[in-house]
Fold each of these.
Amino acid sequence: MTITITAFERSPDGGQGLARDTRVRWALEEVGQPYEVRLVSFRAMKEPAHLALHPFGQIPTYEEGDLALFETGAIVFHIAERYAGLLPKDANARARAITWIFAALNTVEPPILELSTARILESDKPWTKERLPLVEDRVRNRLHQLSDRLGDADWLDGGFSAGDLIMVSVLLRLRSSGILNEFPNLSDYVARGEARPAYKRAFAAQAAINKPPAG
């Protein structure tokens, strides 16, 4: 069965790999599964056909036969469960890897998204100057905790897993803020994720969509 995912027709990040379809592309590249991409415009995302796949009108979605999924974490978890390469065989190690998926999305990503909102969407608000340091401190607190846990290990729990894939994807959102550089082991951790051939293929595929037209 052909796997089809949806992605932005023109990504808001301009092809920097931050759009969430990159996470799904990366997972599929890691497990060696071919896939097709259906590009959707912002207008099409709010139309009935897309809302039938994603009730909140976002991307990505995942279709495989009669299965349709939305939410990046659920999609990556499904891929990791169905195909070998992203979850350990040992039951306990597998459970820990799944825990890191949830930790990345539920504990680490929320303050990072709040920071993005404060820096980009709320930069012109009169209270931003006072609020921004508080948001940055919440991000740093999470990074301190994560940095302590990672220590000098290459990955979060033994070998690379879906938990690392999601965590690296989440941390990449911090690059423009400079905060990630305050934690050398986390910065190196993200660099290791980006160095993986599967990530490079996923990034290149997403960037190609957003390449400016020649001339």
Amino acid sequence: MQQSFGFLIKKTRKEKGYSQRVLASLLGLDFTYLSKLENDRADYPPKEEVIRSLAVHLNLDAEELIFLAGRVPQKDGDFLRRYYKSMPILFKKMRENPKFAEDIFKLASQAKS
């Protein structure tokens, strides 16, 4: 099962024993906005700084959380802009051929370790 950004932060917040109000205060956010994030009802993904702050307070991997939120980390954005013409082709091929996507992700995971 694929978990959403909101589900992960809500689940982790509860595991850490934070109320929405307490975590929102630590993040400098309104608790109603945090509620929208947790319920995947925000109109847009939060800014990278907010996601990084969430990651710190919830002890989550910031880079993974940024991607899960539907954003691209700023440092990776520069790379994507450099290869912007190839990105639509790559994503289309990955959508159309799940085995190709699986192979790409497997190679990337192996390179990481």
Amino acid sequence: MQFRHPLLLASTVLLLIAISACGSSDSPAAPKESSDQANFAATDASEDEGNSMIVDNGNNYSVDDFVSGGYKNVTQFELDTLPEAVDAWYGFHSQKDVELRFYESHEAAIEHGLESAEIAVGKGAVGYSKRPPIRWDAFAIVGNVVMLCELDIETCEALIADIN
């Protein structure tokens, strides 16, 4: 029997490796951080669904880094609802919606972006005017960017893998 979707197989293998590498968090409100640059799925901030990760890989990204990795930026947002953000974009990668919120540093992304990402994942994009009506199911904070991803954490992981 021949496997018809090699990308799906590779993604599944990477997911299984990532899951086996993840430890359990004592508290869903206090996600652990990883500084290992090669491990993108090192941190699970949600005990029940595994829909988030935080990785300090030492990088400061811009939207151009994501565009070079295949991200299609569609709409640049006003920053009035994102305190301390320096840039924000809605777009897609591999036919899935992704919102990118950029901050000055990894620490700023956690301090100013973590709570709003948790709210977006828990309640969807309801309440954000000027935002597409997207249901965000996962988020990642990688370097200085908060990523809201449609469907699952693999959407975030695939985009990060494509820009590295």
Amino acid sequence: MKKYLYIILVGITVVFLMVILMFSKKPKKNIPSFKERKGTIALSGEWLNTKQAIESLLKDIELNPENYKAKLQLSQAYIQEARITGDHGYYDGAAIELLDDVIKNEPKNFDALCCKATVLLSQHHFSDGLLIAQQALPLNPNNAFIYGLMCDAYVELGRYPEAVKVCDKMISIRPDIRSYSRVSYLREIHGDLNGAIEVAKLAVASGYPGLEQSEWTRMILAHLYENKGQLDSAEIQYKLALAERPSYPFAIAGLSNIAKLKGNYKEAIAGYEKAKTMIIEFSFADELTDLYVLNNEMDKAKKSATEVIDLLSPMSDIDENTSGHGHYADKELAYAYLKLPDLENALKHALLEYDRRPNNIDVCETVAWVRYKKREYYEANTMINKALKTNCQNPSLLCHAGLIKIKAGEKMKGEEFIKKALQANHYLDIELRKEVAPYMIAK
């Protein structure tokens, strides 16, 4: 009897221990998977290789959930997928989830910290991105990339002297496509457009033809040519990008913008509509809004403007500090609301962005332009002076400054800004050209 009682007690103990283990065992955490690409971007050999690499990493992580090297590599693949597909809403979140797990277990993992800073900057969380980059810096102070991340953050926060300093450090360590691109942009916003073009050429030449990063850099060069009114040179770069990376949506959009500037609205609309089907990118719909207006398709214009707002802020009515895709996009939303026109919401979003980064010249220009549209000329003038502090010679900025100063009572100075803009670039945005035309005639 005692023997049987002992066996029963042992059995109960074993069952009890099994129950404890079952409930104490951590549930298996699902690893975010990838999405199948769609359309033309799914047809390249690049995608087949990328897909195979991602599938292999997912298997490695499934076999060993503590394989943090594989999780880091998977996050890097997802960061690149976000760039290529435009699906930042999904891939940024997936990358952050993986990176947080890596950093929690390896808090001094330099590459993981750099990747997290990259995603935060992509989401326009510039202050947060800078903090992570500064945290990573002491771990590898001779790494060029970390200085590039800090440069990006400083630029977006309007801390331009600091941006120049870390950019100089970056290029002294590694002169390559990434460092040349940043030097080019800093030269551009400090008024040296010719110098910006020269360095952008170096950036393009140092990239591997056909890679997404290389052809995106070529888009920067083409855009600089556009700002100088050299449309033929810009067109060449867009066509080269398509030769190296067929069906590249940003090159298709670039050629469409050339058509727009030349007055070929139907051709431009067709191009942007094609690009829009290829990836998730709000700027394509934003450009279509303007083109539909120019082509007298007002219903389509209103629908397109609303679509841009939906893309940028699907949760804006719930929480002004949260967007459905994790991004801060209030600067872009301000311009989108201007096109409805909804001046009150435009100002609200412009000021939300200004509260985050009051020293950034693009943000100051946005607030100034919205104030101008609201006929608040004194406030607009104060803000446009802040936007001009780096001596940026962007023709659109100069036209905005000119129009604002004329309305604020500084007529001669305003007309001088407009004259300088038109001398630099005869192919200004059509609507802006119409707005400045009366003052040039009067001159």
